[in-house]
Amino acid sequence: MNDERYLAYLSLFNRERDYFECHEVMEELWLEEGRSSLLQGLLQAAVGLHHWDNGNRSGAAKLMNAALEKLNGYADIVLGLDLSRLRQDLEISLRALSSRPADAPFQAFDLHIVDETLRSAVDQ
């Protein structure tokens, strides 16, 4: 996908860790692209991390589970991302949310960009 909003989403997610803005950018793209479940899953992953980072553990778990449901139907590599790794990271986060004390620190993770051209565009 060669859309500036997608690049912005990836940069906001990986570099700035601004998950709220990820949501804003991706929601616009998701609506324009016909409400794709793939884009919705990426959106929900970011919102889940936003909730966790802000102490809303139940909201984080709900959105991460929803993201997994959306992303499970896709191949391991889609839109230049390693979705297999994203699914694993979401599962690890869900286990952490359910097994750690409420005051356990937030744990961010990166979206693994496997397409070199996409990675270069995001890194600029």
TrEMBL record:
A Pfam family (short name) is DUF309
The protein depicted here goes by the name: DUF309 domain-containing protein
Instruction: Indicate the secretion signal residues.
Output: none
| Organism whose genome encodes this protein | Cohnella cholangitidis
